[in-house]
C-alpha cells in the first residue's frame, strides 16, 4: 500500500511537471516568435479570419497569423518551430484563399500563414517556346489569367472557379472541363519552390529533387509550402462557343461524354451536370449562361424527370470562326441528345473562365455565399458510374440539392502516378461533385443535417456496392480512414512525410498526422 501511494504521488508530481513544461512552451511561444527578424509581420490579435473557410462548418483559432513578405519569412518561422523539436506543440498551416471545406487550412493554436500576402516573385510571363508563368504560391488564378492574357497566353488547365490560390489547388489537383485533354493543374506545373517542414527552401521539378516535386503535387499541404510555381501556358483564344444539351437517358449521356473525350479536334472543355425533379429549368441553370434562344430554352419542361446536361465549350478566334462552326456542327451531329435542347451562347474567354464568379456576386448580394457548404466530391471508375447513378440520382437524391451536381469523365493517362493525389485505378473515371449550400436554421431538405445525412448515405452506398470510389478534396477524421483512402499509396505517403515534415508541423487541418509531443 505504501508503494502504491508512493507511485501515485510520483505520477502526480511527474504529470504536473509535464503540464507546467508544456504550458511554459506554449505560453513562451508568442514572445519567441516576436523576436524573429521578419520582413512581414505577425498578428496575434486579429486571427478570427484564419479560423474560417468556405465550408463554414469548422472553426479552429490559431495563436497567430503570419503575413509574409518574403520566402525567408516563411522559412524562418518553420525552421524556428522545427528547431524547438517535438516539445513544441506548434503547427503551421498555409492558408490560400481559405476555400477549403472542413478546416483544412486551419491550425488550432498554431500559426496560419496568409499566403496571399506573399507577393514574391512578381508574376513573370516567359513568351518563348513552351511559354510559362512564374507566380507566387499565394497568387489567385484569376490574376494569373489576366497577367498571362496581356501576352496573349493562358494556363491550359483550370478549376471552375478562379478565386483560389495556386498553392491551394496544386495541393489537391485542380480539375475542370479541360482536364480530359490537359490533365489536372498538377499535370501542368514545371517547377516549384518549396519550404519543407524543416524550414529548408528547395527548388524542385521532374529533373531536380523530383521526389519532393511529386510529393507536393496533390499532397494536401503535408510536405512543404509552395512559395512559387512555374505553370505552363498556351496561346489564349479570344472567344468561346458555350453549348448545353439535355439528355433524359443516362447511358446516352455518358456514352456521348466518353466519345467526346477521345474524339479528334474535339471540344476544349467537357463537363456535365444532373438536374433532378425540376420544372422551371432555365432559371435554375448556373446564372451566367444566357442562351441565344431563351424562349425556346424556357419552354422546355423536364416534367419532374431526372435530366442530364452535357456542357461543352469550343475556343475560337474571330478569323477561324467558320472552320470552328463546321467542326462543332460535325461533332454535335454525332450526339444523342434530346433534339430540341441544343442551347448555345458565345462569350469572351475571360467571361467563360470566370463564370462562377458571376454566381458568387449574386449569391453574396443575397447573403447566400457565406452559408455552410457540405460539399461531397467523388472520383468514380467508369465501369461503376451506372451503378452509382442508379443508386444515387432519383433514389438517395430525390430532388436537386441547393447547388449543382457536376459529372464528367477524365482520362487517367493525363494524371501522373508519381504525385500524391489518389484516383481510382481505371483508365477513365468520373468526377461527381455535389456542390450543396445549406440554408442556415432550416430543418428541411436544404438544411445542413439533412444534407450531411444524404452525403453519408451516398458514401455508405458506394462502400456497400464496392464501387472503388475515391474522395476528391478528401476529409477523414481518423488515420484508419486515411489509410483506406490511400490504399497501396499509404506507405509511400507516410515515408514522404517522414522525410519532408518529420515532426508533422504542416497542414494539421487535414487531420492525417498528429504532431508528436
Ligand atoms: P486553402 O483552402 O486556403 O488551402 C487548401 C489546403 O492547401 C490546406 O490544407 C492548406 O494548408 C494548403 N495550402 C494552401 N496554400 C498552400 C501552399 N501555398 N503550399 C502548400 N499548401 C497550401 N477544385 C477543383 O479542383 N476544381 C474546381 O472546379 C473547383 N471549384 C471550386 C469552386 C469553389 C466555389 C470553391 C470554394 C472551391 C472549388 N474547388 C475546386 C476546390 C478548391 O480547389 C480547394 O478548396 C482549394 O483548396 C481551394 O484553394 P485555396 O487557395 O482557397 O486553398
Automatic annotation (TrEMBL):
<keyword id="KW-0732">Signal</keyword>
<keyword id="KW-0325">Glycoprotein</keyword>
<dbReference type="InterPro" id="IPR016164">
    <property type="entry name" value="FAD-linked_Oxase-like_C"/>
</dbReference>
<comment type="similarity">
    <text>Belongs to the oxygen-dependent FAD-linked oxidoreductase family.</text>
</comment>
<dbReference type="InterPro" id="IPR050432">
    <property type="entry name" value="FAD-linked_Oxidoreductases_BP"/>
</dbReference>
<dbReference type="InterPro" id="IPR016167">
    <property type="entry name" value="FAD-bd_PCMH_sub1"/>
</dbReference>
<dbReference type="InterPro" id="IPR016166">
    <property type="entry name" value="FAD-bd_PCMH"/>
</dbReference>
<dbReference type="InterPro" id="IPR016170">
    <property type="entry name" value="Cytok_DH_C_sf"/>
</dbReference>
<keyword id="KW-0560">Oxidoreductase</keyword>
<dbReference type="GO" id="GO:0019139">
    <property type="term" value="F:cytokinin dehydrogenase activity"/>
</dbReference>
<dbReference type="InterPro" id="IPR006094">
    <property type="entry name" value="Oxid_FAD_bind_N"/>
</dbReference>
<dbReference type="Pfam" id="PF01565">
    <property type="entry name" value="FAD_binding_4"/>
</dbReference>
<protein>
    <recommendedName>
        <fullName>cytokinin dehydrogenase</fullName>
        <ecNumber>1.5.99.12</ecNumber>
    </recommendedName>
</protein>
<dbReference type="InterPro" id="IPR006093">
    <property type="entry name" value="Oxy_OxRdtase_FAD_BS"/>
</dbReference>
<keyword id="KW-0274">FAD</keyword>
<feature type="domain" description="FAD-binding PCMH-type">
    <location>
        <begin position="58"/>
        <end position="236"/>
    </location>
</feature>
<dbReference type="InterPro" id="IPR015345">
    <property type="entry name" value="Cytokinin_DH_FAD/cytokin-bd"/>
</dbReference>
<dbReference type="InterPro" id="IPR016169">
    <property type="entry name" value="FAD-bd_PCMH_sub2"/>
</dbReference>
<dbReference type="GO" id="GO:0071949">
    <property type="term" value="F:FAD binding"/>
</dbReference>
<dbReference type="GO" id="GO:0009690">
    <property type="term" value="P:cytokinin metabolic process"/>
</dbReference>
<keyword id="KW-0285">Flavoprotein</keyword>
<dbReference type="InterPro" id="IPR036318">
    <property type="entry name" value="FAD-bd_PCMH-like_sf"/>
</dbReference>
<dbReference type="Pfam" id="PF09265">
    <property type="entry name" value="Cytokin-bind"/>
</dbReference>
Amino acid at each position: 500500500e505504501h508503494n502504491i501511494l508512493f507511485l501515485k504521488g510520483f505520477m502526480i508530481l511527474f504529470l504536473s511537471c509535464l503540464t507546467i513544461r508544456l504550458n511554459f512552451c506554449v505560453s513562451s511561444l508568442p514572445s519567441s516568435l516576436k523576436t524573429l527578424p521578419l520582413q512581414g509581420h505577425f498578428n496575434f490579435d486579429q486571427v478570427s479570419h484564419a479560423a474560417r473557410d468556405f465550408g463554414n462548418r469548422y472553426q479552429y483559432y490559431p495563436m497567430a497569423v503570419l503575413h509574409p513578405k518574403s520566402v525567408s519569412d516563411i522559412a524562418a518561422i518553420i525552421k524556428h518551430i522545427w528547431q524547438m523539436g517535438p516539445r513544441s506543440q506548434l503547427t503551421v498551416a498555409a492558408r490560400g484563399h481559405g476555400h477549403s471545406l472542413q478546416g483544412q487550412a486551419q491550425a488550432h493554436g498554431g500559426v496560419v500563414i496568409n499566403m496571399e500576402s506573399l507577393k514574391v516573385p512578381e508574376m513573370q510571363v516567359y513568351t518563348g517556346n513552351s511559354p510559362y508563368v512564374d507566380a507566387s504560391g499565394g497568387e489567385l488564378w484569376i490574376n494569373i489569367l489576366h497577367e498571362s492574357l496581356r501576352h496573349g497566353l493562358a494556363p491550359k488547365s483550370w478549376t471552375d472557379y478562379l478565386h483560389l490560390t495556386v498553392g491551394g489547388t496544386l495541393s489537391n489537383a485542380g480539375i475542370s472541363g479541360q482536364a480530359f485533354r490537359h490533365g489536372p493543374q498538377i499535370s501542368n506545373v514545371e517547377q516549384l519552390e518549396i519550404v519543407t517542414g524543416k524550414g529548408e527552401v528547395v527548388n524542385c521539378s521532374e529533373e531536380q529533387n523530383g521526389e519532393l516535386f511529386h510529393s507536393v503535387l496533390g499532397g494536401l499541404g503535408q510536405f512543404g509550402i509552395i512559395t512559387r510555381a512555374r505553370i505552363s501556358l498556351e496561346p489564349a483564344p479570344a472567344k468561346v462557343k458555350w453549348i448545353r444539351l439535355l439528355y433524359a437517358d443516362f447511358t446516352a449521356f455518358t456514352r456521348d461524354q466518353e466519345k467526346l473525350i477521345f474524339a479528334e479536334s474535339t471540344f476544349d472543355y467537357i463537363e456535365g451536370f444532373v438536374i433532378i425533379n425540376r420544372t422551371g429549368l432555365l432559371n435554375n441553370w448556373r446564372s451566367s449562361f444566357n442562351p441565344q434562344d431563351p424562349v425556346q430554352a424556357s419552354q422546355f419542361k423536364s416534367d419532374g424527370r431526372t435530366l442530364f446536361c452535357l456542357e461543352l465549350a469550343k475556343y475560337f478566334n474571330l478569323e477561324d470562326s467558320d472552320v470552328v462552326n463546321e467542326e462543332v456542327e460535325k461533332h454535335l451531329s454525332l450526339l444523342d441528345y434530346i433534339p430540341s435542347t441544343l442551347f448555345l451562347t458565345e462569350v469572351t474567354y475571360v467571361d467563360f473562365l470566370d463564370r462562377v464568379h458571376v454566381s458568387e456576386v449574386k449569391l453574396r448580394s443575397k447573403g447566400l455565399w457565406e452559408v455552410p457548404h457540405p460539399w461531397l466530391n467523388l472520383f468514380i471508375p467508369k465501369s461503376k458510374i451506372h451503378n452509382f447513378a442508379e443508386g444515387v440520382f432519383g433514389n438517395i437524391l430525390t430532388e436537386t440539392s441547393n447547388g449543382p451536381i457536376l459529372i464528367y469523365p477524365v482520362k487517367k493517362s493525363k494524371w501522373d502516378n508519381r504525385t500524391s493525389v489518389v484516383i481510382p485505378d481505371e483508365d477513365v473515371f468520373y468526377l461527381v461533385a455535389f456542390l450543396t449550400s445549406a440554408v442556415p436554421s432550416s430543418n428541411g431538405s436544404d438544411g445542413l443535417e439533412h444534407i450531411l445525412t444524404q452525403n453519408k448515405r451516398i458514401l455508405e452506398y458506394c462502400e456497400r456496392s464496392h464501387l472503388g470510389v475515391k474522395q476528391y478534396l478528401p476529409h477523414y477524421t481518423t488515420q484508419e480512414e486515411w489509410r483506406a483512402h490511400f490504399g497501396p499509396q499509404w506507405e509511400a505517403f507516410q515515408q514522404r512525410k517522414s522525410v519532408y515534415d518529420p515532426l508533422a508541423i504542416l497542414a494539421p487541418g487535414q487531420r492525417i498526422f498528429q504532431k508528436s509531443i
